[in-house]
């Protein structure tokens, strides 16, 4: 590997013309994409007076799309420009496409700026929007420099080289600013969002306390500590209460996982057997936020399940078998068995296998099932049970 790498370096050093030829070929092929992308961008801009901006805003990614298009045009313009050596002439189609592309960079970046401005006015600054604003600054530098290269009466886009060098320094300055308190996205976002909350522009119920608690580092936690002591201003009491609650959150999933009421769970779970019986209230009331990944989602989300209440171990207490309804579960259906403890707490015994084989669902709904003994007995060893389980991989249907 080392010898091959050394040989490759030697070839690029000794045969610079070979590397230059490969580079020229690649850039020339890329430059032929420029007329196509330019035509698409011109068609988009010409259609705006007739369609309006609403279709663009409805994508919810308008600024990113516009900046991506501008970056692609800038890249292809440079691919067409190369270094203007006499042996690399630019054909007329690509030359005119480069000029048009350099001009339309300005409206594309301007539309991206307008789109970001609207979002900031509506919802305030977020770390993502601050980073996008830095990208817009870089795009504006390129767009204005390339436009200047078009209007100046010199060789074909000759000042692109100067613009690229200046833009490179702008990128470095932007990155340094974002990595320091000067333009720290978390600091700016927290300050702006909290100001909107305290001024009443954002109601407490619509404010993103999760962002302050988990998404903005120490700035968000410091803001929550200050807000929990808030005593004046619009909604001061409610803001202080919600800030205090946010400080008690331990994990993001604790907040984002929906908490279903027992009534909602009961409505989502149909008991197949015994007919007309309801699930135990202790089962419906239990908090399933801390649960194994394989339990049916109807215990934690607003989805549908079917249940069978049956005594599996002949101890006089019924267990619950829960089956997710096809089409609602994530990545396929789920089924699990649950057992009540002496203190009426429910534990998940484990997932059920083969429940999704052909005809099983229909038979369960018709009540055509029976309890049977295990095919193989278990071996009791030192208070542990050794059992034969399914072979590695998904269960096989008979």
Task: Provide a descriptive summary of the structure in words.
With 398 residues, the chain is of the alpha+beta class. The protein has 16 helices and 7 strands. The strands form 2 sheets. The protein has a 5-stranded mixed sheet. A two-stranded antiparallel sheet has the order 6-7. The radius of gyration is 32 Å and the shape is elongated. It starts with a helix and ends in a 12-residue tail after the last strand.
| Widest sheet, order of strands | 1-2-3-4-5
The Rg value, from CA coordinates, equals: 32 Å
Share of helical residues: 40-55%
Unreliable runs: 327-332
Strand content: 5-15%
Write the layout of secondary structure elements.
Elements: H1 2-14, H2 16-31, H3 34-51, H4 54-57, H5 62-81, H6 92-123, H7 127-151, H8 160-178, H9 185-199, H10 209-214, H11 217-227, H12 236-247, H13 252-256, H14 262-268, E1 269-273, H15 281-285, E2 305-310, E3 319-324, E4 335-340, E5 346-351, H16 360-365, E6 379-381, E7 384-386
Parallel strand pairs: 1-2
Antiparallel strand pairs: 2-3, 3-4, 4-5, 6-7
